[in-house]
Write a structure and sequence with these properties.
This is Dihydroxyacetone kinase subunit L. Keywords: Kinase, Transferase. GO terms for molecular function: glycerone kinase activity. It holds the Pfam family Dak2. It is a single chain. The protein has a single domain, classed as Serine Threonine Protein Phosphatase 5, Tetratricopeptide repeat (Alpha Horseshoe). A two-stranded antiparallel sheet has the order 1-2. Helices cover 67% and strands 2% of the residues. By secondary structure, it is mainly α. The longest helix is centred in the N-terminal third of the chain and has 25 residues. Helix 2 crosses helix 3. Magnesium ion (MG) binds next to loops.
Length: 199
């Protein structure tokens, strides 16, 4: 079973990897964006970490809803509302259970990813975070490590694609040949799950 501590570890691991990888995320966002993705997410996950240290949220659902709300209010850009929706929807789907199973988390994350797709209008293949998140959710049935690998492969597979959503889509064919920053950060989020499970 996955308890509130697991979800706190997940958010903390993601905050740490976003800190480590912020420069890389911003560098990826420079040829096909406006070079702010790393700093956007760093600001967001720093706020998530600070809030979770103060707040007594003590169920998996409450922790994710709180984290999502922080991302929406601090990240800005396209990715803030999208990541915020992902975590809030996932949290809401978990309800107020004190512990959840891996299957329940997989189902809730699927609802979260559907929320992202509804809000942003992106489908797999559009060169966005959806290209890492959808394969990750599909692979979750085989465990967290499989989900991490699927998300990383999904992010890498965005390189040859032409962007059809978000700022990168303004570049048309010139968006080809660059890995999508949001898919890359989504792979960090999913890797955080695997780290939380290993701890
Ligand atoms: P902005 O583009 O506003 O500067 P960020 O740089 O923080 O925001 O995030 C860019 C990332 O957001 C992209 O790499 C992409 O993965 C994701 N993204 C942008 N638009 C969408 C969308 N409509 N649906 C899903 N993801 C999107
Ligand atoms: Mg940007």
């Amino acid at each position: 079973m996955l308890d509130a501590d697991f979800f706190r570890r997940w958010m903390a691991a993601t905050a740490a990897s976003v800190d480590r990888e912020a420069e890389r995320l911003t560098a990826l966002d420079s040829p096909i964006g406006d070079a702010d993705h790393g700093s956007n997410l760093q600001r967001g996950f720093t706020a998530v970490r600070a809030t979770l240290e103060k707040d007594a949220a003590d169920t998996p659902g409450a922790i994710l809803v709180l984290a999502g709300r922080q991302l929406i209010s601090t990240v800005g850009g396209a990715s803030g509302p999208l990541y915020g929706t992902l975590l809030r929807r996932t949290g809401k789907a978990l309800g107020d259970a004190p512990e959840v199973t891996e299957e329940q988390l997989a189902e809730a994350l699927r609802a979260g990813v559907e929320g992202v797709m509804t809000l942003g209008g992106a489908a797999p293949g559009d060169k966005t975070m959806v290209d890492a998140l959808v394969p990750a959710v599909d692979a979750l049935r085989d465990g967290f490590a499989a989900a991490r690998t699927a998300a990383e492969q999904g992010a890498e597979a965005t390189t040859p694609l032409q962007a059809r959503k978000g700022r990168a889509s303004y570049l048309g064919e010139r968006s080809i040949g660059h890995q999508d920053p949001g898919a890359t950060s989504s792979a960090l989020l999913i890797a955080g799950l695997a780290e939380a499970a290993e701890a």
